[in-house]
Write a structure and sequence with these properties.
Length: 69
């Protein structure tokens, strides 16, 4: 199983990945830790929300990267 984040704009369309490669993780926990460490950079790079995928199945999301109002 592979865990990945789908990076999205606020309207649900694909956001450009700010990194040169697409991150893939062996566990859900690894994916969530990576997001916790990188969400600010993703937001600054034009990503508004993310969805966590296990292979092609949506685990949860979309989840906004913007701070609450």
């Amino acid at each position: 199983m592979a865990w990945t984040w789908r990076l999205e704009k606020s309207d649900g369309t694909a956001a450009p990945s700010p990194s040169a490669h697409h991150e893939t993780f062996g566990t859900q926990g690894d994916a969530e830790t990576w997001l916790g460490e990188n969400w600010r950079d993703l937001l600054a790079g034009g990503v508004d929300q993310v969805t966590l995928l296990e292979d092609t199945r949506e685990e949860y999301g979309p989840m906004s990267l913007h701070p609450p109002d």
